[in-house]
Automatic annotation (TrEMBL):
InterPro entries: DNA_pol3_chi, PolIII_chi_sf. This is DNA polymerase III subunit chi. GO terms for biological process: DNA replication; positive regulation of DNA-templated DNA replication initiation. PANTHER family: DNA POLYMERASE III SUBUNIT CHI. It comes from the Bacteria.
Length: 140
């Protein structure tokens, strides 16, 4: 059963996602990042090149020739995921085939659209039998 982790209340959703990806990389935990919106995927890509200021999180698109040797992959397609351990979802909807992954990380901002969509995903995951854990980023 997929473990679901909701990191909610992020003042800056992209910065929070990049910080979590940096932490996963530091712990040598590969991550697949599901971002179907091309503009947001590009923003994540740029942020990972720039933050944190004194380190670098190796990343690329999942369809890159370097994907097999890169720990953080950004994709808009989960038909043939590169790995099935950790998936970060940055879409407003539950990612297709999420149940194939061991862990699902959700990052939720503070705007109403994001919060309402997250509530619907929580209900969906719970109805699917997943245990959901919550982490409040607004207190950091």
């Amino acid at each position: 059963m997929t473990e679901v982790f909701f990191y909610h209340g992020a003042a800056d959703k992209v910065a929070a996602a990049c910080a979590l990806l940096g932490g996963a990389y530091a712990q040598k935990k590969p991550m697949l990042v599901y971002v179907p919106e091309k503009e947001l995927a590009s923003h994540i890509d740029r942020q990972l090149w720039n933050q944190p200021a004194l380190s670098f999180v190796p990343h690329c698109r999942a369809d890159s020739p370097l994907a097999a040797e890169t720990p953080v992959l950004i994709t808009d397609n989960l038909d043939q995921p590169a790995q099935l351990d950790r998936l970060m979802n940055l879409d407003l909807n539950a990612p297709p085939g999420f149940e194939r992954f061991q862990r699902l990380i959700e990052v939720v901002g503070q705007d109403d659209e994001d919060r309402l969509a997250a509530r619907a995903r929580v209900k969906f995951y719970k109805d699917s039998g997943c245990e959901v854990q919550y982490f409040d980023l607004s207190k950091r």
